[in-house]
User: Which sequence fits this backbone?
């Protein structure tokens, strides 16, 4: 439409001056022709600049929309991650509370069992029966130690305990393990033997 306007406005002036003839008219025709070409070139350049500007505008809007969409997706992903982390923390706290409650509740009957075994040991004088009562006491002590360790595990998960390193003899630890596994070995018709040792290690018992 711009080219049509320029042509209809200036081309008749060029033709009129060419038809009139004469030096002055030829000069006017030349000037009108140059002006027509200059205006047409200006219109073409302006059109190119305007189209490029519009293209950039729409591309920027598309990029902005994509960025907004990506930000929304990131926010949704962050919310999902936060929810999953909260669920994991709640589950971990519930597990820790369960371990603490279970070890506390189970320690009570074990303590009572130890008292009954101690009372039985005072009333029994048969060496074989005393040995059995001693084994019962050792098993109760071992169970109490296991529940203490279970409670320590829950404390470690909660981040409220750290290993306490010390030097201790291996013999009592091995003896406790023998007491723990000897009944199972007996049921399987196996003999469990612990080699005596005087070694001392540096760790957390």
Assistant:
């Amino acid at each position: 439409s711009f080219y049509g306007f320029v042509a209809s406005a200036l081309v008749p002036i060029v033709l009129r001056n060419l038809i009139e003839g004469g030096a002055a008219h030829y000069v006017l025709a030349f000037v009108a022709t140059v002006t027509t070409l200059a205006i047409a070139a200006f219109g073409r350049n302006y059109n190119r600049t305007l189209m490029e500007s519009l293209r950039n505008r729409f591309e920027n809007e598309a990029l902005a929309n994509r960025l907004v969409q990506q930000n929304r997706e990131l926010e949704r992903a962050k919310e999902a991650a936060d929810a999953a982390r909260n669920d994991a923390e709640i589950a971990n706290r519930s597990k820790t509370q369960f371990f603490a409650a279970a070890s506390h509740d189970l320690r009570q009957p074990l303590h009572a069992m130890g008292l009954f075994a101690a009372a039985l040991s005072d009333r029994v004088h048969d060496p074989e029966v005393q040995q059995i009562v001693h084994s019962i006491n050792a098993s109760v002590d071992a169970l109490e130690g296991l529940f203490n360790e279970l409670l320590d595990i829950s404390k470690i998960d909660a981040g409220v305990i750290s290993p306490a390193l010390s030097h201790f003899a291996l013999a009592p630890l091995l003896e406790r393990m023998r007491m723990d596994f000897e009944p199972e070995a007996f049921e399987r018709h196996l003999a469990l033997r612990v080699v005596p040792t005087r070694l001392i290690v540096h760790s957390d018992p």
Notes: The first strand starts at residue 166 and ends at 169. Strands lie at 166-169, 200-203. DSSP finds four helices and two strands in the chain. Residues 23-123 form the longest helix (101 residues).
